[in-house]
Amino acid sequence: MKRPLALAALCLAHLSPAATRPAAAQHALADGGSYDPGVPTPRQVLGYDLGERFTPHHMIVRYVERIAAASPRIHVDTLGRTFEGREVLLAVVTSEANQRRLSEIRADVQRLADPRGVPAAELAAVRGRVPTILWLGYTVHGNEASGTEAALGLLYQLAAGRDEETRLALDSVVVLIDPVQNPDGHERHVQDVARLRGAFGVPVTPGTMPHQGTWPSARTSHYYFDLNRDWFIQSHPETRARVAGFLAWWPHAAVDLHEMGSNSTYFFAPPMQPVNKNVPASVLKWWDIYAAANAAAFDRQGWSYFRREGYDEFYPGYGVSWPILTGAVGMTYEQASSGAGAVRRTDGTVLTLRDAAMHHYAAAWATLMTSARRRAERVRDYADTRLSAVGDGARGPLRGVVFEWDAQGRADSLAQRLADNGIEVRRARQALELNDATAYGESRAGRARVGAGAYVVDFAQPQGRLARALLEPDAALDSSFIREEIESRRTGQPDRFYDVTAWSLPYTYRVRAWAVRGPVGGTEPVRFPAASPADTNTVVYAVLPEARYAYAFEPGSEKGMRTLAALLADSVRVWYAPKAFRARGRDFAHGAVLVRVAGNRDSVHARVRRAFAAGGADIIPLSSAMVESGTDLGSNSVFPVRPPRVALLGGAPVSGNSFGFAWYALDQRLGYPAAPVDAGAVQSGVLSDFDVLVVPSAPAAALERALGDAGRDRIAAWVRGGGALVTVDGATAWLASERTGLTRLRLRRDTTRADSAGGAPLPADVPGAIVRAVADTLSPLMAGVNAAELPVLVFSDRIYAVPNDLRAGEAVVRYAPAGRLRLAGFLWPEVTARLAGSPYLWTERVGQGRVIGFAGDPNFRDLWRGLLPLFGNAVLMGRSY
């Protein structure tokens, strides 16, 4: 009989039907012979039993290293480091015999992952000998911390256990344990609780300070991103490291262990609808197999649980949705949260950290034993799924996607990101003639010509399901699901949309793309680095020749924006020439950013070279203001770009996610400093030290309360005196209120129901759709973006009305007419007519300053790389024109 470990000291049952744990089980080492006494228990290293308190990151690392040193069953890799410098660990746990042949096992799983060209007999031999590869990821949300305690318990059991079940698990499975997927957020949670923990522990009353945490909660990463949505976007080093580790092992099953509301019980797969249409059929079978094992384990204890409710598998960026599309059985497990470690629930019971950790441990062990006992079947189904992806991709109605190379580098960035997701990308050696191709945003197929260098992704590859899910123009929602949602909405029921319904990467990267129905020839493989550390320039450039008149580079690209940001941050005087010209044989179709030699200090050449190295823009030295064609560079249309001192509003009630998106865009994409400013500090006059204030999304009424009359009036006076106010998403509704007095923009008010029944309008909160917008390309806010149409995200119910006295240059970007509005995702039936023609990006001169309002969030999850120039121009140039 397997002995209890510290985590399971309160009656955690053995998961074998034939055995049970003693009702009054003591600490694991009390029974001696069932465990290797040479492997330290959690208490011996941590100083407490698991479940007594939350374990900080440095102690997690210490314990994992100690048991790895003591047990030949564990090998530990440091996959990467977070933005705050904490290690991202992966423990590789299996039998001593398997540890000795890990390189052979990894070679085998690579053959299964890409079975093309492998003889059938060899594949059969591999399937017969390879262990199941099981990935267990814990605590991707920092304050969902019971998972980490359960992970440490499982590590001890596998490292020290001597019973038959543990040996079976170790012989049959390679267990990959990521004990804390979000080290930075988890550490915030641990410290929040520790600071408020008294001599009597934590209060069990929900709503007390230990259960609240500090703004914006410990759920998110250093930049306040939700890492459970980052798997294909890979904005963070944690995710890039994790995905690289996943692609090195190609797991056959993957579990992401979370927490939910304290009054819930326990959730495990199968999920609710909708399920992404690219999910392999065999995964549905295995959801039921694993669910039966979990249910049996919980039933033996009398624990409650549920399935098919609350959590879907539609968006492909979750920590289990992404693995599913590689062929793994991905499963979300959700445990009711113990909050700060003990919380009283509405039924009067107190849920403790130990309880929560026990439940996670039980589910993980049931999953592990199922993976061991059904190894041959799981490995076979995985291998078949990888092989069928190739055939299904070749036979499907959509064979692949071609996207055009662009000089601004968006296509290069997209191709790199796909490669980082393990997707094969090829490139056209010469111009391509595409037959039966449908341009993104259009409905009719036809012929298209695409220039040399275009990228081609063929879905007939082992990663074809993931490639299709990320690139297809529109992710299909089941029609019956939509009918049910519309009917539920009419009767006042909540919707079941769990996340955005559209994310097609050609739209979010703003590349020209075509869906093709047949194979594309004339291509060659593209070789990328194994991972892209930060998508920043690392090339060593040649010496930049000195200019006599000015240095020029085009705006709009990420390299161009980073170069502009580096120049402004270095106090270099910069100008913007908005009109097209040709100089030195080079066409500047978007105009150009100029650094005039005469307008700067003698050190300008060295400073430009420094910015050149930091940003990587293609800088052209010019010897004269006279151009070969177009507008001369001494024109009155050329205006100086004044270096902005940027403040970023934070603190309650600002959305932590939106704050983080903007902070990340400024820090990591633009490379420009911004100072966080709490909403309460605005009243004190802090804005006098800044020229630009970025206000991330926040509920309008709550933002008004946080600022108060004094704060609102301070902002208004500051704008009229020359400041630039940039509002994002919900904060734009605050800007558009009459009380601010800063804009003529207003929220649109609808007074009739879509079903003509009268009364209040039906709720129209769009669950994340992609729509077409029409742009005023003459606006400096569109510098470097000369496309008249561009895709944008709609993810709210806020719709704005332009004033009757609309002036030129104010409605910079507007949603397209109804007939051409929707590109991808779900819109409620009446939303199209409401949204059409309303503004997405609005600007208005106010006194000596300017307001700039985004109806949505252009920085959303670092996914919308095609909208980065709009945000960058607003921040870097918004106060200058």
| Low-confidence parts | 1-30, 530-541
CATH class of the largest domain: Alpha Beta
Number of domains: 4
Q: Estimate the global geometry from the Cα principal axes.
A: globular
Number of E strands? 36
Q: Which structural class should the secondary elements be placed in? A: alpha+beta
- Mean pLDDT level: 93
Q: Per CATH, what is the topology of the largest domain?
A: Aminopeptidase
Strand content: 15-25%
Rg on CA atoms, Å: 28 Å
Helix content: 25-40%
* End-to-end Cα distance: 76 Å
Largest sheet: 10 strands, mixed
Description:
It is a single chain. With 881 residues, this protein is α+β, with helices and mostly antiparallel strands. The chain folds into four domains: 6-390, Aminopeptidase; 396-525, no CATH class; 550-641; 646-877, Class I glutamine amidotransferase (GATase) domain (Rossmann fold), CATH 3.40.50.880. It has 25 helices and 36 strands. The strands form seven sheets. Strands 25, 26, 27, 28, 30, 31, 33, 34, 35 and 36 form a ten-stranded mixed β-sheet that branches. Helix 11 packs across helix 13 and helix 19 (558-569) packs parallel to helix 25. The longest helix has 21 residues, at 281-301. It is globular, with a radius of gyration of 28 Å. The model is unreliable at 1-30 and 530-541 (pLDDT under 50).
